[in-house]
Specification:
- By secondary structure, this protein is of the alpha+beta class.
- The chain has one domain: Phosphatase 2c, domain 1 (4-Layer Sandwich), CATH 3.60.40.
- Helix content is 45%, strand content 20%.
- The protein contains 11 helices and 10 strands.
- The strands form 2 sheets. It has a 5-stranded antiparallel β-sheet. Strands 2-3-4-5-8 form a 5-stranded antiparallel β-sheet, covered by helices on one side.
- β4 and β5 form a beta hairpin.
- α2 packs across α4 and α8 packs antiparallel against α11.
- The chain is globular.
- The termini are far apart.
């Protein structure tokens, strides 16, 4: 059976400026499939309703995945045969549902004088209504015999399969044009998604997070190792929740001070069967981290000696 977890924390910088959390996250555990999703509303001036946009992105994703799974037997049979096409359709549907939610919210809540007063008339006229709600999106789905994920904008996806190693499986094809930030609010947004699909590998855990988490780490290796540690705690979900919430809250307070969202799906049986493997991987990662640190220090010493000469 799949289980899941999600949590968002408001960044210290937002607390200091009395700003709302612009992140949103949620998850959907289940027997046939599980979904983990996070979204990060853009913080710039023209995206002044991005906290709503991120929540709508999360809702649109869960609603869309649920809709595709309405006939679970048929979906599980056909999806692996045509996964590229199906994933593209899922992305398009998410964007469509998100736009519907944005339109409905805007109709019920017209732009206020207070929201508009920070712009000149020309500035405001140049902003598309969708941009008010601009947000990124990262979603991970675990199914029977396959795993897939989609992403638009920044953020991270980390998978841990049966070998116990953490990998980032997303295929980044640089679909966004130069100087254009990939966002749910872009025209033709469905063309800016990146995705991955893995079949035949047994999943232990799959994590999605907003960029506020990644930027608290010194490098990619440390970021991936962190997820192995998290996975090793998933055999006790209540303890895991306490550890994860405490950790991302600390990283938000004393790291980049940004909002942080973390969401994950995991196979309960695979976690329990591979706890010893995960612990062995953690010890191996510690040794590799020490070796990298020693190598980096050696390079710095050599560089300093050359400068002294």
């Amino acid at each position: 059976m799949f289980n899941a977890f999600s949590h968002s924390v408001r960044g210290a910088s937002h607390e200091k400026r009395d700003l709302v959390c612009q992140d949103a996250s949620s998850c959907r555990p289940g027997d046939r499939y599980a979904v983990a999703v996070v979204a990060d509303g853009h913080g710039s001036k023209k995206h002044f309703r991005s906290n709503f946009g991120s929540q709508f992105a999360v809702e649109a994703t869960l609603e869309t995945i649920d809709r595709f799974y309405e006939d679970a037997d048929s979906f599980e049979q056909e999806f692996p045969k045509n996964h590229k096409m199906v994933i593209k359709n899922i992305e398009k549907q998410i964007i469509s549902v998100w736009n519907e939610k944005v339109k409905a919210h805007l109709e019920a809540n017209p732009v206020t004088v207070a929201e508009k007063k920070v712009f000149s008339d020309k500035e405001f006229a140049d902003i598309s209504p969708e941009s008010y709600y601009g947000t990124t999106l990262v979603a991970a789905v675990a199914g029977k015999g396959y795993t897939f994920g989609i992403q638009i904008g920044d953020g991270s996806l980390v998978a841990i399969f049966e070998d116990g190693r953490a990998v980032e499986p997303m295929n980044y094809d640089e679909s966004a044009p130069a100087n254009v930030t990939s966002s749910m609010c872009n025209a033709n947004a469905s063309g800016y998604f990146n995705s991955f699909y893995v079949e035949g590998r047994k999943l232990i855990a799959l994590f999605a997070s907003t960029d506020g988490l990644y930027t608290t780490f010194a490098n990619e290796h440390d970021f991936q190792d962190y997820h192995v540690i998290l996975a090793s705690k998933l055999d006790d979900i209540e303890t895991f929740k306490q550890i994860a919430v405490k950790n991302i809250t600390k990283r938000s307070r004393f790291g980049t001070e940004d909002d942080i969202s973390l969401s994950c799906v995991f196979d309960e049986e695979m976690v329990k069967a591979n706890i010893d493997l995960l612990k062995e991987t953690i010890e191996s990662n510690k040794k590799k981290a020490a070796e990298r640190k020693s190598e980096l220090l050696s390079k710095k010493n050599i560089k300093a000696a050359m400068q002294d000469d």
